[in-house]
Write a structure and sequence with these properties.
This protein has one domain (2-129): 60s Ribosomal Protein L30, Chain: A (2-Layer Sandwich), CATH 3.30.1330. It is 39% helix and 26% strand. It has helices at residues 21-30, 32-54, 78-95; strands spanning 2-8, 63-71, 107-116, 122-129. The chain has a 4-stranded mixed sheet, with helices on one face. Helix 1 (21-30) packs across helix 2 (32-54) and helix 2 packs across helix 3 (78-95).
Length: 132
């Protein structure tokens, strides 16, 4: 079985994108509570997308996750774009009880592709159950 979630771009700074790892590190450097609040806020955005689009789905099998990142341009490093989002999204899957845990037992791996869409930055996530 395969499931899809789209997390639309959200305002952060001047850009309409999810924050990068550098943004998160900077927030933590200002004060640990600032970083914690930032993670919590963006995890709530991910949870809202998951709850809206996957309803009350619970996946019991292991999964592979594919992320399609749509950035407004090529300015940000792709590793910085992905690191914070992947962490927040996978924690949100666990919070929403879509997955029991976000460890190796339940998430067997992930892949990423990158695209430019100036008008609609977003992340499209495909969750695929693995048949064992």
């Amino acid at each position: 079985m395969e499931y899809r979630v789209v997390v639309k771009g959200t305002f952060y700074g001047k850009d309409k994108v999810f924050p990068s790892l550098n943004d998160y590190i900077h927030a933590c450097g200002r004060h640990p509570q600032v970083g914690a609040k930032m993670k919590k806020d963006y995890q709530l955005i991910a949870c809202n997308a998951i709850r809206t689009q996957l309803k009350r789905l619970t996946i019991r099998k292991p999964v592979r996750i594919h992320y399609d990142f749509y950035e407004p341009d090529h300015k940000r490093d792709i590793s910085n774009v992905t690191a914070f989002f992947v962490k927040v999204f996978e924690d949100a899957l666990q919070d929403c009880k879509v997955l029991r845990n976000d460890n190796w037992v339940y998430i067997r791996g992930y892949s990423q592709d990158f695209h430019v869409d100036k008008d609609r930055p977003r992340v499209e996530v495909t969750i695929q159950e693995i048949e064992e």
